[in-house]
Amino acid sequence: MSLAVVGARHLNADNSNRQFEILMCEPGEPIDLIPEPTNTFDQRAVAVFSCRGVQIGYLTAERCGRIGQLIREGREVQAVFQRQAQFGAWIRIAFDGEVPIVSVEEPVDVSDRNEPGGVDADPDFYPDEVWPDD
Q: How far apart are CA 81 and CA 107, in angstroms?
């Protein structure tokens, strides 16, 4: 299962840069998922950390509840870095002893329009005005 990692534009508490850390990540590197029940914005938040122990963001609000529940129940959840995205990153996760796999031939979608946050792949595009015919 692929999951979006959002919040990469924010700095970490130690002022480390999440976007820089995402640039350092390679496909297939292990990722740690850490529930944050004391998070003031969302008690179901699940923080995402690189293999170097640097936070790269959070799981989306739509997914963090279920994934956090599985982690709290003691289910084995393994995650690996998949790829960068305009909004942050994609990770792959697997459950109960399965190993998440990132295909080398996996196509990279250059358009993040349908990805979390509604990121516009071409933010500088403006359509020509349509003038009425007189």
A: 15
What are residue 91's DSSP bridge partners?
3, 81
Q: Is 71 helix (H, G, I), strand (E, B) or coil?
A: helix
CATH class label, 2-95: alpha beta
Q: Is residue 116 pLDDT above 60, yes or no?
A: no
Compute the C-alpha angle 24/31/18, nearest 5°: 45
Which structure tokens are listed for 29?
A: 């590197």
pLDDT average, residue stretch 85-108: 84
Q: What is the pLDDT of residues 71-82, one digit of tens each?
A: 999 999 999 999
Residue 82, amino acid: Q
Determine the 3-state secondary structure of 63 from DSSP.
Answer: helix
Whether pLDDT at 101 is above 70: yes
Give the pLDDT score at 63: 94
C-beta neighbour count of 18 within 10 angstroms: 23
